[in-house]
Design goal:
387 residues, Beta-Lactamase, 3 domains, five-stranded mixed sheet, four-stranded antiparallel sheet, 48% helix, 20% strand, elongated
Length: 387
């Protein structure tokens, strides 16, 4: 830095001036290297979130400037800003773009809160512009590495989840098949006993409870087999609006009894899809029943259908209790339930996930504690076939 100044004051010429210039240049270079070293040290620190890392980096910028006492910094990345504590907008600034894979994702800014009119070399040094560019490049590398590690971690988690699902699916299928025969015997003999003449009233009620419980157990077994994909879907060309109308017919009275306002929003002329009608009705009922359980004191249940160029969507939205991020992360795990013992099997959403996946569809879930939950099921549209 061949500049003849010290804190904005010009120095006399000659050997003393040259020595002073060298001293100032060395001091500025040490500050720049200290900044870059601090960034590297922060980047290799384990278990640091990207947000905390960027906050640390932005605080390393002002001390690297020639006037650190009036310097401020900001890092903008993907519509988020990380600033020094005393930051405010200033026209006296340098900036460098953060570029990842050829795309601008933000920038690094350094600014001064006031001008220094007496500075012989100007407010900013050429080396400081190069430093800001170097910092922007370092930030881009850090973000790229963080994204790679995050993607790898997410993929490993998905693989572990898929492995657990496969294991549970095999176990569930085995249990379901083992239970089918004795359950059929229980149901058959109970129904025969119910037809016996002269049964006491209490006995008839007890047998009716046996039949009801056996039928419920049979439905649970069907859900287990669906989850384990032991019951392949029987697909045909269907209209989602019709499936929703039939499903809501059975849910309307229950909604009214619970003080829940049922809102329909079915898009007319919805394109057909290839699907198993019974399984999609099960998807709708499972989502709607979960929504009803989430609104014990009443609310609104909204069921809509939408379409874009490639998909039709089923949207089930409630104004209930909502879910935490922890609950959302376990939402489709078999046998996971937030309901009390005896009130839920923990299979409903696992079955929904299995059915939607087998139809080539996607599930998107949005939820906020105290504000409700929104499920969107996207299913591929049938391509038109020319005769």
């Amino acid at each position: 830095m061949n500049r003849d100044f010290d804190d904005g004051v010009a120095q006399p010429g000659g050997s003393a001036g040259a020595a002073r210039r060298a001293q100032v240049g060395l001091r500025e270079r040490v500050k720049e290297l200290t900044c870059l070293y601090g960034i590297v040290a922060a980047a290799v620190r384990p278990h640091t979130s990207l947000e905390d890392l960027l906050k640390n980096i932005v605080n390393l910028l002002p001390p690297a400037m020639q006037y650190p006492e009036i310097a401020i910094g900001r890092i903008n990345l993907d519509h988020h800003s990380y600033t020094t504590t005393n930051f405010r907008e200033s026209p006296l600034k340098l900036a460098a773009d953060i570029v990842l894979s050829g795309q601008r994702r933000g920038n690094v800014e350094i600014a001064y809160l006031e001008d220094k009119p007496g500075a012989e070399s100007g407010l900013f040094l050429e080396e400081e512009q190069r430093l800001i560019e170097a910092v922007a490049n370092h930030v881009a590398l850090i973000v790229e590495r963080w994204q790679t590690e995050s993607d790898t971690s997410r993929l490993q988690q998905q693989l572990r989840h898929a492995d657990r699902l496969a294991t549970i699916g095999q176990l569930a299928a085995g249990i379901a098949h083992e239970l089918n025969d004795p359950l059929a015997n229980i149901l058959g003999f109970a129904q025969l006993a119910k037809k016996s003449p002269g049964l006491p009233a209490q006995t008839e009620q007890d047998i009716a409870k046996i039949v009801s419980s056996a039928l419920h157990a049979r439905e649970v077994i069907k859900m287990l087999l669906t989850f384990a994909r032991q019951m392949p879907p029987t697909k045909s060309r269907v209209n989602l609006n019709k499936i929703v109308e039939e499903g809501l017919y059975f849910l309307a009275s229950r909604s009214t009894k619970q003080g829940i306002h049922l809102i329909r929003g079915l898009t007319p002329d919805l394109p057909d899809i290839t699907a198993d009608t019974t399984q999609l009705q099960q998807v709708l009922v499972n989502l709607a029943v979960n929504a009803l359980h989430a609104m014990p004191n009443g609310g609104r249940l909204t069921v809509k259908t939408l379409a874009d160029d490639n998909h039709v969507s089923l949207i089930v939205e409630d104004t209930g209790t909502g879910m935490t991020e922890e609950v959302k992360s376990k939402l489709f795990t078999p046998f996971f339930t937030t309901k009390d013992v005896g009130q839920g099997t923990g299979l409903g959403l696992a079955v929904v996930h299995g059915i939607v996946t087998s139809h080539g569809g996607l599930i998107n879930v949005e939820s906020e504690v105290g504000r409700g939950t929104r499920f969107e099921i996207k299913l591929p549209i049938v391509e038109s076939v020319e005769n």
